[in-house]
Amino acid sequence: MQKTPFVLFGVPFHNVTFEEAIQWTIDRVRSGRPGVIATVNLDFLVLAQADPELRTVLREADLVIADGFPPVKLAPFFGPPLKGRVTGSDITPMLAERAEKEGISIYGLGAAEGVAAKAMEVLKKRHPNLKVAGAWSPPYAPLEQMEHAEILRRLDEAKPDILFTAFGAPKQDKFNHMHVKTWNVPVAIGIGGTLDFIAGVQTRAPVWVQKLQCEWLWRWGTNPKRLTKRYASNIAFLMRAVWLTMQLRLGRNIPAAVDSSAPPHWAEHGVEYHEFQSLEKLPEISAAKVVVDLRDAEWLESNEIGALLELSKRSEKTVLLHAGSRIRKLWEFSKLSDGLPLASNCTEALALLG
Ligand code: UDP
Question: Which of 70, 71, 239, 290 could form a disulfide with 315 if both were Cys (CB 3.0 to 4.6 A apart)?
Fold first, then answer.
């Protein structure tokens, strides 16, 4: 599986098929190293614009899959195409099927009272040898007021291999992120309303509606009161995104002014300096602070931003220097500066690196 994600509007997506995502999950369970999967749809992109914590949660997730058509359709405008959508609602039963074959256990957490247990019952009926480690639907509460200690106690006792967390987005993903470094759950995945679908308390759109890429319309029709505001903001975001794409693709790039009279001795400041020429040349860093000079880059493809994001994760801090106007505009819209800040000149870069 390709490790470098494609970054769309500040959110990384891993370019995987269903089969690759399932295999990743099994490998991760076998590795024993806890990890999280986020299933990201258009609504996440909108929420992430206004929520720095959610941006961090998604950038630090171990696997991010495109749960919907909008990210898949937008991807080619910003770099290589994504292989396709990998929906939480579809991958959950597929994971249960594979878990049975692998002898791996699952746990359903969330949804309304009794729904998680009912969903696990349905899966067990479909796959008699499936190991269900447990199920619990804790009382609804804001994230900070949830019974974290009780949930962790139950998980500790049940020791599931795969945890299906269904508190809705972004609560479920913040919850998984909050605990992944301390709990012993090998893989936790946020699955939204999937337990409702499996338990049969909500009906998913018929396959022909899904094929027409209109599942969101179906959901809207079945729950207009709750979803109208969400979909209105999603459509507004999509329109702004298309407008930005046109501006960036057709507009002129104004390169950054480069003051080359007295470049600082980066090494003396404990900083590793690199020119950004191509993705392949991105280095294995050895210093904690890194500067990547973008003076020759007119544009950054989504996979190149993904590589820079990976680089920033490996370093204490990475700063991008001399970005032109197109990259700056993209950064501003995508809120990428909190992970990968831009500096106009060397002095600013050094100040940002502290
Ligand atoms: N849910 C929950 N706790 C909450 C809020 C929601 O367990 O505090 C459950 C809800 O019952 C549903 C699931 O989260 O089963 C997903 O909700 P939603 O339909 O909003 O998911 P999304 O559309 O965000 O994927």
Answer: 290
Q: What mean pLDDT do residues 341-352 have?
A: 92
- Expressed in angstroms and rounded, the spacing between residue 32 Cα and the centre of ligand 1 is 28
Alpha carbons 274 and 313: distance in angstroms, whole number? 16
Q: In the structure encoding, which two tokens stand for residue 153, read together?
A: 């106690």
**By alpha-carbon position, which residue is closest to atom 2 of ligand 1?**
167
Instruction: Give me the residue spans of the domains in the chain.
Output: 6-228, 266-353
Q: Which of 186, 144, 147 is nearest to 163 (CA)?
A: 186
169 pLDDT higher than 80: yes
End-to-end CA distance of the chain: 36
The rounded Å distance from CA 186 to ligand 1 centre is 23
**316 contacts: CB under 8 Å, gap ≥ 6:** 288, 289
Work out the mean pLDDT of the chain and round it to a whole number. Answer: 92
Say how far residue 218 (Cα) sits from the centre of its chain. 25
pLDDT tens-digit series, residues 30-87:
998 999 999 999 999 999 999 999 999 999 999 999 998 899 999 998 999 999 999 9
* 111 Cβ closer than 6 Å to some ligand 1 atom: yes
User: Structurally, what CATH architecture does the domain formed by 266-353 represent?
Assistant: 2-Layer Sandwich (3.30)
For residue 278, name the pLDDT band (cuts at 50, 70, 90). Answer: low
Ligand 1 proximity of 140 Cβ (cutoff 6 Å): yes
